[in-house]
User: Which sequence fits this backbone?
């Protein structure tokens, strides 16, 4: 006896498209509670320390925004690539290289003050990330390489370059050879928005990126081209779009955003270059981009949710001694449930009434 | 106006929290770890120290795998805010965040491992004289090597690591003047893949003794397979390579952590810069492998006692650098200042320090 049947939808459902991320989060919470239960914690208490306690004060909330800023910025950049069928996996490398370039410029201005320093440092980071993203883009368009592999491998190149610089030529002369540079001068630091908190002007860059991307996606020819290329590269070709220019452009935008995220980290909370300028924001932002449905507004919410999993993992370990890796489990579950529930986009469940003759079985 | 409001609002919040728990008598001690607690290595040893504090009846909290970037400050601040009276930050990269948070919480005591900044009166630093353990390894290595080549996997060219290389080389040369030390820099504290490759490369270059200033068990396992000698680092690594490991340098933070926690409880905690060694037990040695022979074991045990009592110093002159310049003259010993800033190899070490 069959109670329901799975039917293919004629058309992907728009409502489901935006509901599935919420469904994914709800499922994550339910399964998270189950995991907590089996680990021997009170599920509701654990969830409270995971998702509410970290942000129930001004400081906590500001830290959430601080953590979400780079994720949001990178994810916005990535959505340019992903929308148009370009699989840039190397945002972490573009972030690192942007950080290297802007950090180098900031060090050039070591000991100097002036209003012009920060804009130059920020610009340098954007250009650095942009140029670094151009490598996989150019190799893809002119040499037909796979951008997933190239962009991913360049992550390790950039990290090794950063290692080399902070250990060697750029290391702090007074720092006993520890792998870090000098502290940047005050003029090379992002202005702090509120005294005593760490949230800095970088958040405005992220918000600007959200607005610009929204305009580009929905109001410009480029956005339309990206959309068409995303659906079908053949159609795009048939329509006569110059695919190469678009590929270069989306990679450059994506790289610039990642580079700016790097700038925000090193000129914001960190204040110098060292080996750990990013706890893999570039990779986590891929989850954020998809959780946000490649939609600028969606990405804002997604970056906040994912940022909260980091903060929550810390709080849960401090107060309840829950292993910190549950944060990563939560991130994994959100993505898993999102991809799984995407099934509902194209298929629907049709409940069948029980027919009399079936009851006899 | 708004800015001022926030300034006072935030600082009053800090003080409110700071005072509300300073009145509370029960001490809680917080630990910030750079890695997972695991079953060997740097963080594991700090975790054992924490267990000892807990066993002494003092409540503790830890946060593991805290990246040394922007996140460290938030974790340290949260520990300070949530009523911890003493916080151990157990990696070099927490130096600036520790000092920054210490400024906002004058009633909380902070202890930073391996750093040199004590910007506020509530920040202490502590480290261990691991170089004394390296002297013992050097003595053993000088006796055990057949190829006169010692392979050394080094992490970062900081004084701590260079001091270990030099200390080991000097001790090995004392028993065997033809000793050469070959170094591979891996620029990581923990990367089993890289460490294994480095160990193999050193063995291929003729090293029949492998030691490492990195955290994983990869090197001793490669040595076990290749049939050469090795030494454990941070934890006793005998069980990972029972034939190959001759002994291990073991970090034992437990006595220090218990002592400092009790000092906070009794109100006797004072800022200090601690550098303990074999004498105090912060550096301990694993069991000596019987393959060394009873005579050598006896010799090493005596040397261990003499290093602890101060009768023997790891850096006793004459000591020369690679270009034959005198670093320490005959009959003198290197002072702590020189040891802490050590930036050149002694004679007998091959290659250059990466700059």
Assistant:
């Amino acid at each position: 006896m069959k109670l329901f049947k799975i039917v293919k939808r004629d058309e992907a459902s728009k409502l489901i498209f935006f509901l599935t991320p919420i469904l994914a989060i709800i499922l994550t919470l339910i399964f998270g509670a189950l995991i907590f239960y089996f680990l021997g914690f009170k599920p509701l208490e654990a969830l409270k320390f995971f998702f509410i306690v970290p942000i129930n004060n001004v400081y906590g909330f500001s830290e959430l925004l601080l953590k979400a800023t780079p994720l949001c910025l990178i994810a916005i950049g990535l959505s340019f690539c992903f929308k148009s069928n370009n699989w840039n996996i190397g945002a972490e490398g573009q972030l690192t290289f942007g950080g290297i370039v802007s950090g180098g410029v900031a060090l050039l201005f070591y000991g100097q003050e002036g209003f012009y320093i920060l804009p130059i440092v920020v610009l340098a980071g954007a250009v650095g990330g942009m140029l670094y993203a151009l490598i996989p883009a150019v190799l893809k368009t002119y040499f037909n390489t796979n951008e997933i592999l190239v962009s991913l491998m360049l992550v390790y190149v950039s990290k090794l370059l950063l290692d080399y610089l902070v250990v060697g030529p750029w290391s702090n002369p007074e720092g006993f050879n520890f792998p870090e540079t000098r502290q940047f001068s005050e003029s090379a630091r992002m202005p702090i928005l509120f005294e005593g908190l760490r949230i800095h002007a970088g958040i405005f860059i992220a918000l600007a990126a959200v607005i610009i991307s929204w305009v580009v996606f929905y109001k410009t020819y480029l956005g339309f081209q990206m959309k068409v290329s995303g659906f079908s590269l053949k159609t795009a070709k048939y329509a006569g779009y110059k695919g190469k220019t678009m590929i270069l452009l989306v990679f450059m935008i994506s790289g610039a955003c990642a580079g700016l995220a790097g700038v925000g980290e090193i000129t914001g909370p960190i204040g110098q270059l060292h080996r750990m300028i990013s706890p893999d924001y570039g990779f986590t932002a891929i989850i954020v981009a998809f959780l946000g449905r490649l939609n600028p507004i969606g990405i804002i919410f997604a970056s906040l949710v994912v940022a909260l999993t980091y903060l929550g993992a810390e709080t849960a370990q401090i107060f309840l001694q829950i292993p910190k890796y549950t944060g990563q489990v939560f991130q994994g579950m959100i993505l898993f449930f999102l991809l799984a529930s995407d099934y509902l986009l194209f298929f629907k469940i049709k409940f069948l009434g029980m027919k009399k003759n079936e009851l006899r079985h | 106006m708004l800015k001022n409001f926030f300034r006072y609002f935030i600082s009053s919040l800090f003080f409110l929290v700071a005072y509300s728990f300073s009145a509370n008598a029960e001490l809680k001690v917080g630990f910030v770890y750079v890695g997972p607690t695991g079953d060997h290595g740097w963080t594991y040893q700090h975790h054992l120290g924490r267990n000892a504090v807990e066993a002494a009846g003092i409540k503790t909290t830890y946060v593991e795998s805290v990246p040394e970037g922007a996140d460290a400050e938030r974790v340290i601040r949260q520990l300070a805010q949530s009523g911890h009276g003493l916080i151990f930050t157990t990696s070099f990269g927490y130096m600036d965040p520790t000092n920054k948070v210490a400024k906002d919480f004058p009633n909380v005591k902070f202890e930073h491992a391996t750093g040199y900044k004590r910007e506020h009166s509530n920040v202490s630093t502590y480290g261990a004289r691991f170089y004394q353990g390296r002297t013992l390894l050097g003595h053993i290595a000088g006796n055990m090597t057949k190829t006169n080549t010692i392979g050394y996997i080094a992490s970062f060219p900081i004084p701590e690591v260079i001091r270990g290389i030099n200390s080991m080389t000097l001790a090995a040369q004392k028993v065997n003047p033809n000793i050469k030390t070959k170094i591979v820099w891996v620029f990581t504290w923990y990367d089993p893949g890289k460490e294994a490759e480095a160990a193999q490369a050193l063995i291929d270059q003729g090293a029949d003794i492998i030691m490492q200033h990195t955290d994983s068990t990869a090197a001793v396992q490669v040595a076990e397979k290749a049939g050469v000698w090795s030494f454990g680092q941070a934890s006793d690594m005998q069980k990972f390579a029972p034939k190959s490991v001759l002994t291990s340098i073991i970090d034992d933070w437990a006595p220090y952590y218990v002592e400092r926690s009790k000092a906070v409880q009794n109100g006797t905690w004072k800022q200090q810069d601690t550098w303990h060694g074999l004498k105090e037990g912060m550096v301990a040695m694993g069991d000596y492998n019987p393959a060394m022979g009873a005579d050598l074991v006896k010799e090493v045990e005596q040397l261990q006692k003499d290093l602890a009592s101060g009768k023997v110093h790891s850096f006793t002159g004459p000591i020369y650098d690679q270009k034959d310049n005198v670093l320490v003259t005959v009959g003198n010993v290197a002072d702590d200042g020189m040891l802490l800033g050590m930036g050149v190899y002694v004679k007998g070490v091959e290659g250059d320090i990466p700059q």
The interface with chain A takes residues 3, 6-7, 9-11, 13-14, 30, 36, 61-71, 73-75, 77-79, 81-82, 92-93, 96, 104, 116, 156-159, 187, 340-341, 343, 354-355 of chain B (CB under 8 Å).
